[in-house]
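## Example pair
The file below holds two records. Each record gives the amino-acid sequence first, followed by its structure token line.
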Amino acid sequence: MGTRCLGQITSQQCNESTSKYVNLESQAVRKVAPEYPAEPGFHVEGNVTVRIVINKKGEVVSAKAICGHPLIMAPAIKAAARWQFQPKLIKGKPTKNIGVIVFVFKDVNRDRGN
């Protein structure tokens, strides 16, 4: 997996292996935005891709960040775990689903003067 340096922390960059999953954002019936860390001096931006497993009820039962900056992975995972989806139907029966959500983080601390 490729990496790139953002400051002193190495970020896991997304590539073809992470794009094998379907982006499930459009199938969500409830979305929760991640909270940007509010620590003064924290200035990280970028995308975090979270792989999710959804049960037959449409609930997220597993969430794992597969690429993005390590300092913003935890808020992305926490938000993804609270999403709700329309259950995937196969032949009219609900089934589990696996895919990704991509969260885009903007540096809100820059606007606050931190």
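Second record, same layout:
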Amino acid sequence: MYEEFYGLREKLFNKTPDPRFLYQSAKHAEALARLQLDVDETREYVKYRVSVAGKEAPLFDEEALTAMFEHSGGVPRLINIIAGNALVEGFGKGVDIIGQEIIERALSRTI
């Protein structure tokens, strides 16, 4: 839905794990479930996922990235859900860069 609008080659932040980013083992799954990124790692994680999808320009501003961290606690699965919902919200609003306001609106519709 939003891929073409944002110029992405593929959908970002699926609610299910992307096998390209995971090694499927029981120990790995347990480690991922306990993984918590700090604010800088969260920023880099989101920027990396955006670049893998083919977008070189920023898609989320710094305030949005900080809000994602604050609301997700740095848990990648929650970051993915928040970011994906924010992209849908941003697409609906026709915005080029996702800001904190879009993150907050996406969260209000998620929780």
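Notes on the second record: The two ends are 22 Å apart (CA to CA). Helices lie at 3-6, 26-34, 39-52, 62-72, 76-93, 100-110.
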